[in-house]
């Protein structure tokens, strides 16, 4: 019988939970006033690298997405140190943060579809 989850997918799920907790509770940088969501974590096959995709609900005027990613990537060493304490893994992966804009794209597509259906309804009534 085939396993439903591989080890790397279990580790990526656990990393997603732990990194979200670390960013929310342990990063004391006052520039992180926005809500940061970890949408996905992709771990390499040898578990030495992790790509962490983050999205933000609101971004401050002073802090752009690029600056936020730079700050998170600078804090990745500290996050990795805290992960060592929380996870019992032989190798804690190097973390690289990326912006995930799939929510914005999905929202835009949804708005366009709503506009099209509204135009179709109005054209059928005319």
* Order of strands, widest sheet: 1-2-3
> What is the fourth-level CATH superfamily?
K homology (KH) domain
Number of strands: 3
Largest sheet: 3 strands, mixed
Mean pLDDT score, rounded? 86
How is this structure best described in words?
By secondary structure, this protein is α+β, with helices and mostly antiparallel strands. It has a single domain, classed as K homology (KH) domain (GMP Synthetase, Chain A, domain 3). The chain is 51% helix and 17% strand. Strands 1-2-3 form a three-stranded mixed β-sheet. The radius of gyration is 19 Å and the shape is elongated.
Set down the secondary structure blueprint.
Elements (H helix, E strand, L loop, with lengths): L6 H19 L10 E8 L5 E8 L8 H10 L1 H11 L7 E6 L2 H24 L1
Parallel strand pairs: 2-3
Antiparallel strand pairs: 1-2
Helix pairs in contact: 1-3
């Amino acid at each position: 019988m085939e396993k439903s989850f591989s080890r790397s997918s279990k580790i990526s799920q656990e990393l997603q939970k732990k990194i979200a907790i670390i960013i929310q509770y342990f990063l004391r940088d006052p520039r992180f006033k926005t809500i940061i969501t970890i949408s996905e974590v992709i771990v390499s096959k040898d578990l030495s690298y992790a790509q962490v995709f983050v999205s933000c609900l609101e971004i401050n005027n002073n802090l752009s997405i690029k600056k936020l990613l730079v700050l998170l990537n600078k804090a990745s060493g500290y996050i990795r140190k805290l992960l060592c304490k929380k996870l019992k893994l032989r190798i804690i992966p190097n973390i690289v943060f990326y912006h995930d804009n799939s929510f914005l794209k999905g929202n835009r597509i949804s708005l366009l579809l709503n506009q099209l259906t509204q135009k179709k309804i109005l054209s059928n009534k005319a």
